[in-house]
Amino acid sequence: MAKIPVVLDCDPGHDDAVALVLAASVCDLVAVTTLAGNVGLAHTTRNALGLVQLLELDVPVHSGAAGPLTGVGVADASHVHGESGLEGATFPATLSVTVSSDDAVGHLIDTARAVDGLWVVATGPLTNVAQAMQRDPGFAARLGGIAIMGGGTFGNVTPVAEFNVHYDPEAAAVVLGSDAGIPVLMCGLDLTHQVLVSDELVAQVAALPNRFGPFAAGFLGAYLANVRARTGSDHDAALHDPCAVLALTHPELFEMRARHVSVETTGSLTRGMTVVDRRPWTKGGNVQWAERIDAPAALDVIVAAIAAAP
Ligand code: BDR
Ligand code: CA
């Protein structure tokens, strides 16, 4: 079956890095667009370029938003992903792959015109996607759909707000408020906390005979250590972003339901919260909300993608 054409809009980020290697394997990855989120734009873009180089991909990288729509600074996630955004990974000091443009938004718009059935998989804040919708009101309707890692019925930045939505709630509100009539798949924390990086997974990936396996084990081990230090526990760490890729390419692994999801942008306690209508009697919704995933099968697909890399 033909692979689905995808632009990965991301802020790598350990789990974004796994989403990238996965998308390169199971999708027709036509471009990577970057934005600030986990760390600043220069770092997320360099990490994307380094990964594209290491994976020997012929895929352009376009950098985008350096901050949220409001322009007001917000805390990053360097305590989880390290100062570089990809602690545990070392790229060559000089990369041969360079950025194709600093207009990710323009590239998203152009690619949606050029590629039939293009999907955007968004694994960072939704700033680039929202700006594409604002710059070109016909953008969303030209897409096959959007798959998002973001939101949840609980939070990880505040008690109720997940990082990607909390970083740019106005952007998330634009995207979820779009009435383009295209499918929107949404993997929130309720779903992504079912897919875990464990010591066993790190060891399995480290033992792969290719170059990328031990490389990925290096950064996944750092991610796991950071999450454990942050939470003061020996729990495993959620592997959020690849879930948004799998929701598109492997829907048979998911239980999804149409739900109404909106974003709180004003509450003094609840800014960045996704309000998910789970009342049993409400019908329909603006997103397909991912509720459950077959985690062992999902991890098998992810490990196979890492194993298929150079
Ligand atoms: C999301 O926030 C980031 O730290 C991760 O890369 C993921 O996209 C999880 O809340
Ligand atoms: Ca991310």
Give a written overview of the molecule.
The chain is built from 13 helices and twelve strands. By secondary structure, it is of the alpha/beta class. The chain has one domain: Inosine-uridine Nucleoside N-ribohydrolase, Chain A. An eight-stranded mixed sheet has the order 3-2-1-4-5-6-12-9, sandwiched between helices. β1 (5-10), α1 and β2 form a beta-alpha-beta unit. The mean pLDDT is 97. Residues 10-11, 13, 15-16, 37-38, 123-124, 241 line the site of calcium ion.
Describe the secondary structure blueprint for this structure.
Layout: E1 5-10, H1 14-26, E2 28-34, H2 41-54, E3 61-63, H3 78-81, H4 104-114, E4 119-122, H5 127-135, H6 139-142, E5 145-149, H7 163-167, H8 169-176, E6 184-187, H9 189-192, E7 196-197, H10 199-206, H11 212-231, E8 237-238, H12 242-249, E9 254-259, E10 261-263, E11 274-276, E12 287-293, H13 295-308
Parallel strand pairs: 1-2, 1-4, 2-3, 4-5, 5-6, 6-12
Antiparallel strand pairs: 7-8, 9-12, 10-11
This protein binds beta-D-ribofuranose and calcium ion (CA).
